[in-house]
Specification:
The structure holds 2 protein chains of 2 kinds. By secondary structure, chain A is an alpha/beta fold. Helices cover about 40% and strands about 20% of the residues of chain A. Chain A is globular and about 65 Å long. Chain B has a single domain, classed as Archaeosine Trna-guanine Transglycosylase, Chain: A, domain 4. Chain B has 1 helix and 9 strands, in the order βββββββββα. In chain B, strands 1-2-5-8 form a 4-stranded antiparallel sheet, with no helix packed on it. A 3-stranded antiparallel sheet of chain B has the order 6-7-9, with no helix packed on it. In chain B, strands 3-4 form a two-stranded antiparallel ribbon. In chain B, a hairpin with a 2-residue loop joins strand 6 (about 60-65) and strand 7 (about 65-70). The radius of gyration of chain B is 13 Å and the shape is globular. Classes of the chains: A alpha/beta, B mainly beta. The interface of A and B includes residues 225 and 342 of A.
Chain lengths: ~375, ~100
């Protein structure tokens, strides 16, 4: 068993990484925020809300939730000064988690250079604070793991997704928490998921969400289905959905995470993001939505290969032998033995679970080493 | 010896080819305590499905332990299972768009 030495935050959260967040509140402060990050690339990550001129609840909640994430020892908010998503308001909301948060406004400081100077001094102080973060032992029960897919192919449903399902079950058996999203890919799975729901309300909710996704597909005539799927061997949307559902494992469904909130209990969750913030989104956006719900790291199954990263460590899993050979530099977990018939899904799932614990204990993923901190 | 098929759930009546398989080949599909020995009645490409036992017309085809469609005609063990002999009653209409009868 690997020892996971986490970072204890003032609100009791345990983090597996220790960064300082640099958060821009509008498009106009993005450049300054990125320059500050480039001055301290090792200890900082940058994200924000480009559309922050107007104050909107969903994106505001998201940057606050991310700022409060267990990976961050402290945060610096960078605003222009006239935006609706006001920098001090963001800072104050994040500071409720007890961590030090400071804010600078470019309009008040007098331009880029003075803001960078002041921001740099603040960052030095916050980085020193981060280096003193209290360490505490973590167990798998403290972990929250997200699951995202991108660039799927026939091997996703046959190997990668079932493997993550096994790892999810092992994590939950150890007391941990697991979540995935992408309900649009689960057409026809409403009954199966409802049967796994912990209570009537969750059962009703998940059935409604999937029925709604089905209605949208019928109305628009757009299904996640094409000739390539049939050529690859998939006979029906039901089969494709079942392959997707295999990433969920077999444990009871605890609830639906609709807002950027951390799961209230341990176990298996489906995350659908904040209403109005879109249902289809890019892969790093998906990873960061898990982060906003408290996920420590994210599993990422890909058939074609992907560069995806995000604000939390991403473990990229590939089962397609040809693609694995081609894009090995960006892959973290080799699931090709399943496709080569050398190992079972169970065996590879157990290995993936060990990899999750290793990354939680500090092993850096490719997305981290390349600083694919997409946000 | 490496497995040539994958059986995803013990409830399933189909397995999936992990590599291109030839008519007449004898393959094993197993998971936990379930194991099937099948002689292939036709060529089956990687990623495509093989019937593990005889499936009657109208019977549900099961993969991942989930219903994925109904047999349009009787399917014998070792036959290829795809859009020509299996169709989802909810979504099957979509295949017509691509010129496939099923």
């Amino acid at each position: 068993m690997v020892d996971i030495l986490g970072y204890l935050r003032p609100d009791g959260q345990l983090g597996i990484r220790n960064h300082v967040a640099i958060i821009y509140t509008t498009h106009c402060s993005l450049v300054v925020a990125e320059k500050l990050h480039s001055l301290f690339p090792e200890g900082t990550q940058v994200f924000g809300y480009p559309g922050g001129c107007a104050l909107r609840e969903g994106p505001f909640n998201k940057i606050v939730a991310l700022g409060q994430h267990s990976s961050y020892a402290a945060a610096l908010v960078v605003g222009l000064g006239c935006e609706g998503t006001e920098a001090y308001m963001v800072a104050e909301a994040i500071a409720k988690s007890g961590k030090p948060v400071e804010a600078v406004k470019i309009n008040q400081e007098g331009g880029d250079l003075k803001t960078i100077e002041k921001g740099s001094r603040i960052l030095v102080k916050l980085l020193q604070h981060a280096s003193l973060a209290e360490r505490a032992k973590m167990t798998p029960a403290d972990l929250i793991v997200g699951q995202e897919c991108g660039g799927s192919d026939a091997t996703s449903g046959l190997a990668s997704n079932p493997i993550t399902g096994v790892a999810a079950d092992l994590l939950i058996e150890a007391g941990g928490t697991y979540m995935h999203s992408e309900v649009e890919e689960l057409l026809g799975c409403g009954e199966a998921l409802a049967a796994r729901a912990v209570n009537e309300q969750v059962a009703r909710e998940i059935k409604e969400i999937i029925e709604e996704a089905e209605r949208r597909c019928f109305e628009s005539g757009r299904f996640s289905w094409g000739y390539g799927n049939i050529l690859g061997g998939l006979t029906s949307i039901d089969e494709k959905s079942a392959g997707c559902l295999s990433k969920s494992g077999t444990k009871p469904l605890q609830g639906i995470l609709r807002k950027y909130e951390r799961p209230k209990t341990k176990g298996y969750y489906i995350q659908i993001g904040e209403p109005g913030s879109g249902t289809f989104h890019g892969d790093p956006e998906g990873v960061n939505q898990f982060a906003a719900c408290g996920a420590h790291l994210c599993l990422f199954t890909t058939g074609c290969g992907s560069t995806t990263g995000g604000l939390i460590p991403v473990i990229k899993i590939i089962a397609n032998p040809k693609r694995m050979q081609l894009i090995e530099d960006n892959a973290d977990f080799d699931a090709t033995p399943v496709m080569r018939g050398e190992k079972t899904i169970r065996e590879m799932g157990e290995e993936l679970y060990k990899e999750i614990l290793a990354v939680a204990a500090g092993k850096r993923t490719k997305s981290e080493i390349y600083r694919h901190y997409e946000a | 010896m490496n497995r040539k098929t994958i059986l995803l759930n013990v409830m399933d009546n189909v397995a999936t080819a992990l590599t291109d398989l030839k008519k007449g080949e004898k393959v094993t599909a197993s998971l936990d305590d379930k194991s099937y020995e099948i002689v292939l009645l036709e060529d089956i490409e990687m990623g495509h499905k093989i019937a593990l036992r005889d499936i009657a017309e109208g019977e549900t085809v099961i993969k991942y332990g989930m219903p994925i469609g109904k047999a349009l005609s009787p399917i014998r063990a070792g036959q290829w299972v795809h859009v020509h002999n299996c169709r989802s009653h909810r979504w099957g209409f979509h295949n017509e768009k691509y010129g496939l009868r099923a």
